[in-house]
Design goal:
The relative contact order is 0.19. Helix 6 links the parallel strand 2 and strand 3. This protein has 228 residues and is an alpha/beta fold. It is globular and about 55 Å long. Bound molecules: adenosine-5-diphosphoribose (APR). GO terms for molecular function: NAD-dependent protein lysine deacetylase activity. Its EC number is 2.3.1.286. It holds the Pfam family SIR2. It comes from Mucilaginibacter terrae.
């Protein structure tokens, strides 16, 4: 089975009603990244950070996977598919995708403030400041903040280096190290980029740009890959 590696960003969940970060009216508009998405912000005002992620968690729980998430699941009939997502929602899993690696964590789990490898499911949408893990440390959202290491990056880079086919869906490629992953994909492997606003990538005859929203572009590419 050919290895198909798919890197997704906020754009794939936009049509599920979840805001992207850098489009106009993006998620960061109205929020100071330093305040809500850095370790310093957390130390300064943990209650505010919890509130911000509680609201996002509520939106995620209310959202449903869309046609793009569902189409990717069909690829598993023919390919060895791994999805690497920058998204902290769980819409790929809820659509039924088997292998999903979360580069930036997942909002429906919490983690220990002192040991990020200790993670726990959150019951419902609310994680309150003051809630402790079983070892007594403060719980925070299981999300990678700006300035923090991305523990999954080496696994992701290795997966990309083994890709026979690569897809990039709904990401501006503005945030490293995730944005650098495409450079690990072999030159000879076809790359499909689906985004209404195609990000800058190294040009090649094997780069196919599908300038479309995910719910239109992804099913088209999936149909082609299943027919090939
Ligand atoms: N379908 C597909 N793509 C879309 C759609 C859509 N309906 N709507 C918007 N997009 C595209 C935009 O054109 C843009 O290229 O999705 C991309 C969203 O880019 P960002 O908002 O920068 O999101 P992302 O690339 O996932 O951000 C990366 O930045 O803030 C951090 O940790 C956060 O994981 C996030 C990371």
């Amino acid at each position: 089975m050919k290895k198909l590696i798919i890197l997704t960003g906020a754009g794939i969940s936009a049509e599920s009603g979840l805001k992207t970060f850098r489009d106009s009216d993006g998620l960061w508009e109205g929020y100071d990244i330093e305040e809500v998405a850095t370790p310093q912000g957390w130390r300064k005002n943990p209650a505010l950070v919890q509130e911000f992620y509680n609201m996002r968690r509520k939106s995620v729980l209310e959202a449903q996977p869309n046609a793009a998430h569902h189409a990717l699941v069909e690829l598993e009939n023919k390919y060895d598919v791994t999805i690497i997502t920058q998204n902290i929602d769980d819409l790929h899993e809820r659509a039924g995708s088997g292998k999903v690696e979360h580069l930036h964590g997942v909002i429906i789990r919490s983690q220990s403030d002192i040991d990020p490898t200790l993670t726990y499911p959150i019951d419902g949408w609310e994680l309150k400041f003051g809630q402790l893990c079983e070892l007594g440390s403060q719980l925070r959202p299981h999300v990678v903040w700006f300035g923090e290491d991305v523990p999954m990056i080496e696994t992701a880079a290795k997966l990309c280096s083994e890709a026979d086919i690569f897809m990039l869906i709904g990401t501006s490629l503005a945030v490293y190290p995730a944005a650098g992953l495409i450079n690990y994909v072999p030159n000879y492997s076809p790359k499909y980029i689906i985004d209404p606003n195609i990000p800058k990538v190294r040009e090649s005859a094997l780069v196919h740009k599908i300038e479309a929203k995910a719910t239109i572009g992804v099913p088209q590419v999936v149909a082609k890959l299943l027919a090939d």
